[in-house]
Amino acid sequence: MKRRAEQHRLPYPAEHMFDLAADVERYPEFLPHWSVVTIRAREGDRLIVDQELDFGIQRLRFTSQASLQRPQRLQIRSSQPPFRTLLIDWRFRSLGEAACLVSLAVEVDMRSLLLEAAAGQLMRLMTGDIFLRFRRRAHALSGVRDLTPERIGRQ
Question: Is residue 153 situated within a structural domain?
Fold first, then answer.
């Protein structure tokens, strides 16, 4: 199983960043490789989501369950092939009205040995690059000047 975690201090309210992360159907608009995201069912604070990641030579299709605890946490899980385990855990902590600490932890365990070897690339995609793209998206939607955020930690 591969694990990776990062946290960043960002110049946006926690609620704003939570809403961006929870708007999963828009991921294909700003996250590379996310080609299809469809909410199949919505029951209160739980979503069933069909997703497709397109890496050119490989497409990964799977269904995940998202648990939303606005505005503090968004957790996405899947144990469907190609994953034994996929856990994406977003946490949002307010640092006042105009800033927040966003943490992203990802755990991936693939069913295929070949895909497990490529999981490191998937991990990099799901942490540092995602932070950059969410920051850009937050800036575009809010108009708030986005200075370079402070990276707090990485594993």
Answer: no
